[in-house]
Structure formats: structure tokens, C-alpha cells
Amino acid sequence: MSDSEGKKSSTAPSAAAVEEFKRKKLINLARSVQRINEQGREAIQKQEAVLQFKGMFRTLEKFYTNFDSLYKELSVSIASFPDDSAKKMFASVENYYFEIHTNYEIVLSREALETNLSRVSVNASASANTSTAGNLSHLPVIQLPKFDGQLLNWPTFRDNFCAIIHNDVTIPDVKKMQYLSSCLSGPAATIISEFPCQEANYHLAWKALSQNYENKRLLASTYLNQVLQFKPLQGKASTDSLKSFLSKIVDNVSAFKNLSIENEGDFLLFHLAIRTLDAATREQFEHAHKNVAFPKFEDLAKFIRERLVAMQLSESTSSNIIPTATTSSSSFVDRGKSKPNHKSFGNKTHSLMVKSNKPSSSTQPTYPACVVCKTETHPLKRCPKFFNATVEQRHQYLTGWKGCINCLSYFHQASACESKWSCRFCSQRHNGYLHMEKGSAPTNRTSQPVNNNASCSSSNFHSAVLSSITLPISNVILGTAMAEIMDSRGNFQKIRIVVDCGSQHSFLTQSCLRRLGLPMSSFNISICGIGDTPFSGSKGQVSCKIRPCGGTNILSTNAVVVKTITTHLPTTTLPSELYQNYFQHQLADPQFWKSSSIDFLLGADLFGEIWTGQTITLEPDSPKLISSIFGNIVMGRFPSSISPDQSLSMFTTADNDLHEELQQFWKLEEPTPSTVRNPEDDICEELFQKTHYRLSSGQYVVHLPFKGVVPSLHDSIHFATKRYLNLENKFKKDPKLQSMYSEFIQEYVDLGHASLTRSPTAYAIPHHAVFKQEGDRCKIRVVFDGSAKASNGSLNDYLM
């Protein structure tokens, strides 16, 4: 036999090699089916993965058929096949196969459903024109228009939806309702959410939608505002800037003209003029002209003239009134002979003085004897005895005093005081040195006593008429409503809420949480009130679902749990003459007038979803009715002769926790280390994924990552032999080391890590033993040296 023939026979694959090859192929086929299944799962979750899944699905039958055939072939040719691992692999592949088909059907059915929803279907009856139906079946798919509640998008949506769905008499109303619901989102979807998907509700839902958005006047104003708010183009013209001009100016002007306003120029002047007025005046004008579709400029000018006249008459009337004396005449001693000062009425209780016609003869003040020390002639504010006294003693000193208790002047009363300063503790019109805490005697005198025994004949006295009146005080009622909240069992329980759009969060009381049985989670955001006052009473947060009483519109939010939200609202039960006029309306809280506890504070996170945008005024200076999904909420000021004991302000804002902000700061400031990835790492990872497999014994096998072609290292046997001979020389000197080495090698063989070879190998890895003496004991470690150099390099030189 020639050398070449001997080499060919030695390289022929053995039966074991063929078996191993088939096992690897079986594993690769199983992995291919597994990858298709993973792509199918992703296609169910993500639309962008559907296309790739469809392509991979076409190869499924080929992979599965080859896997099944090879599995059966190995079962026949190998007695030990299939083992447990092979059986598990076959079961997994079979499950993958069925799951892939299921996911594929789901994808197809989903696409068919979307196609049916977006296609204009004409269900012709037996008597319908079959030719028309045949023509419609060849029409391309039409996407239904979408509407998110933006007013500018309403005309386009209305026209398209009417042309495709609304005006088509062949489509049942229940399907029209389904189409309408699928087209709406945001605030528009909220409007029709209270209408169940029934045939009778379609026209009601469409009417409600039209009433909210079919407002030509509001559309016209919106188009003009878009034009007026457009910022002038700066710098050199570009394609983007010109496109912006066309979209903002030209498109809005065209839309404005399409409204077919009778006098566009007059309405433009009207719009420019009304934008300059304050909000209150604009609201009054709109209320007065609510039945006029497009008011004219002359209407606005006439309204402003009439309002100006009314305000002038009101101001002149109030300034010329001299109050009638309600007490007997008396004399007022003008000790300084200075000219008394007149002031208009304020918000508190006043004593009014009307000066006689006799002018004062002196302009320089001459201070009388001090009302406190009785000896010095100095201003009261410079009296040491007065300022060293207690607050109660100061009040006793000023009993019967005719001067000003605000600035402590002798020459006028508190009602005529020109000082802009008030008490620094309570902001009332009395001096800070006369301030007493709540519960003590009051310091601000509401009227001056009348001296009936004073003589009126002396020339040093000026006659005066004194009158004491109390002006009305305005109190405020906060908006409350009755609602329902879902408990842990899925049932709805009634709660009383207060509406506060100044709060970033909604709040729930701890007692209400216990009644509902809802789970509470942690809440790490700090809460601040007015003046940035911190609030540390939050217990956590809870997920809530709220709806109107008996309604279906459910609002979801995360509410902060606190012990109490506020005191009973209103703080006192209101008189019947105030609330009896409100019962004719549908109220959100039928007992809003009755002081009762609050369970929930509805903040700005939900306020936009409950407000429907209508305000009803029953009487001037009375609470307003604010329309909401709960009903009409009573809110606003009302006149009262009693000053409230306390004022409630529930404004809250939320800030991130300081600890979290500090952590975020360090994360931002810390430089991100740039990792340079070695291309060989990717090659090694890919090689591992493609070649590794697991033996029946449970061991993994992986190919060595060579840089290129597998090198020829046949002469490595010489270096390995030389290393072993050196070990034998060491063993001759110390038989104990030889015994330890033999035990290690035998254990290595028993574990299956090595086997005895009787033929030359492609590579023999050199090794040596390292011995370490620790006291009486000696430890051995065998080092397999892949860096040992052969004639053409080491094994590690050719590995990645």
C-alpha cells in the first residue's frame, strides 16, 4: 500500500464520528425550530416582528421534517438512542411546532380583523344591486379617520367619517357605533364613553360629539389664533421655514375661508379687538351674545360703552353717599386742630366721621398730655410706659381713647387712617403692640363710643356725626361631590370628595383606605403646600378607580394616603336661604350645604377628566355651578355677616425625594466608561452558539476558537515527552511525589477528562506537576501548558 493510500484510509470517518455528526445536526435542527418559535412569540407582542416571522415560518416544515426523519434514523441505528435528553428535546421541538402554527394563525386573524375594520363593507341584501356590490368589492382598503379631540382636526374627521360611515344607509347603527368608538381617542373618546355600544345609542353619541366640536365661531377663532401666534421667519429662507409658513398661515387662512362667514373682515376686526380685553369682560360679552353666531365689531364696541357707563355710575354713586347717623350727635375733640382725613369704606367694620364746615385754624400738631403717663406731651408711640406694659394693660390704657388704634395717632380714628401698615401678626387694622391671640379680648374696635355729655358750645370743638356700620364679608364654599370607589372585592362604595385643581396629586384618607381594604405601596416623593411648606404626613400611595354614582365612566389614578385631608366641609352648615335655589339642578353633592367629612381629594391629575366646561350663575355674588361628570359642583363665594374662623387652602405640589435626586445627579455627572469590544469576542460567541452541544453524560462540548486554519502541531509530542521525562527524574528522587501524581492522573481519567491513546495525536499538550509543601502535608497541582512552544508556535498562539 502506498503512503497516499494509507493516509486516505486513516482519514475516513469512523462510525462514532458519523454518529456524533448526526447528533450535532439533530441539535441544530432543534435550535432552528426553537428560533422560529421565539420569533413567533415576539410577533404576537410587536408588530414590527411580524414580517420576519412570516419569512421564517416558510422554513418551518423543512426543519421539522428533517428533524423528525433524523430522529427516527438515529433511533434505529443506535441502540442507546434516544436517551432522556433526546426524548426531552423531541418533546420540546414538537411543542414548538404546534405553538408556531398557533401564533401564525393569531397573526393572520389579527390582520384580517384590522382589514375588516378599515374596509368599507357593503352588505347588499337579496334585492340590492349586485353589480354595485361587485364594483365595491374591488375598491382598495380605506383607512377610517382618527380623531383625538383636537378642535382643528374635527372638520376633516367629520367630513371623512360622514362620507364613509355616517351617511351609508346600508351599515347598521350598531356597526356605526363600533366604527365611531374605534376612531376616537383622548377627550373625544371620553364624551361617548357613557354610551354603551348599542344600536339606539349611535345617534345620541354622534349628537353629543357634534355639540362639543361643531362650533364654527370657536373654529374661526382657533384658525385666526394660529395665524396670529405664528412667529415671523428669521434669517435666510429655507425649505423648512417656508413649509412652516404654508402649514401655519396658508392652511389656516384657507380653513377660515371655508367656514363661509358672512363678513370675514368685520369678524377679523372683532377678533383682534376682543383678544385685548380682560377675561372677565370677555366672559360677560360672550354671555350677553350667546345666541349670536358671529358677533360684529360694532356689537363689541356697544357693549364696552354700556359697561363703561355702568361702571362710572356705580363709582360716582358710591363716592357721593354720606352715611346717615344711626347714633345721637356728639362732639369730637380735635386736640391738634388738624384737618381730619376722609377715607373710603374698607372691607371691615368702620366708624365714619363727617367733618363740619368749620376749617381748622392750625396745621402744626400740638400733642396733648399722653393718655398713658398723663404728664408728658409726646406721641403715644414714644411713651416708654406704654411699651413696657403688657398687652392687656395697653388695652386698659386706651379704653375710651379717641385716637387711632392702628398707627397710635391722636388726630384721627382708625377708619380714617392712611397708613398702609397693619398688624404684623394677623394683618388686621390695629397696631402690632395691641395684638392678642385668639380667645383673648379683641383689639380692633369696630366703632368709637358716643359721648352724649359733651358740650357743643366751645369754639375749640368741631361738631361730628358718628355712624357705625358693618360691611358684608365674603365666605367661600369649596366644591364637593359624591362618587363611588372600587374596594378590594370589586364592589363600589360611596365616598365624598373635594375638588382641588391646585393639587398635583389626589389624596385618600387612611380611614377610607381601611374601609376599602386596598393594598398600599410606598411613596417616596416629598409634598409641599403653599409657601413651599413641607408635608410629611403621607403614608404611601394606592391605586384607585373612581366613577360617578351609578355611572360607568371609571377614572383611575394613584392617590396619596394621608391621615386626614381637611376638616369637615363646609366648615359650618350653610343657611337654608343660600342653598334652596340650587335643588332644581342636578347636584354632584345633594347635601353640599351640610358640614360633613371628606374622604378623597381629587387633584389636577383627574380634574381635566371630570370638568365638562359649563358654568351656571344663579345670582350675582353667589356660588357658581360647575358642570362635571358627577353633576353640578357648587363652588365659589357667598355673602355672610360672619367671618370664617379659618381659611382652607389645599394647594399641594410634589417634588422628587432629595435622596433620589442626589442619586440621579451623581449618575448624570459620572462619566460613562467607553467599552471597546474586540471583534474576536463576537467571533468566539458566534462559534460557541453554533458548535456547542451537550453529551448524554451531561457534559458540554465546544470547538476551540482558532484564528484561522487549524495548525499542524504534530511535533508537540516531543516537547510533551521532554516535560514528562523531567517529571520522572523528580519522581526518582521523591517516590511520594510520584504517588501523588499518579493518584491525580488516575482521578482525571476516572472523571472522563482524559483517556489513554495508542496512536499519534494531532497535538499533545505538555504538562508538569507543581508541588507545594505546607507543614507536614504536600499539595499537588498539575498545569497543562498550552503556551509551551513547538517548532511552529504554541497552541495558545493560534487561539483567539
UniProtKB/TrEMBL annotation:
Domain of life: Eukaryota
One Pfam family cited in the UniProt record for this chain: DUF1759
Protein name: Uncharacterized protein
Taxonomic source organism: Nesidiocoris tenuis
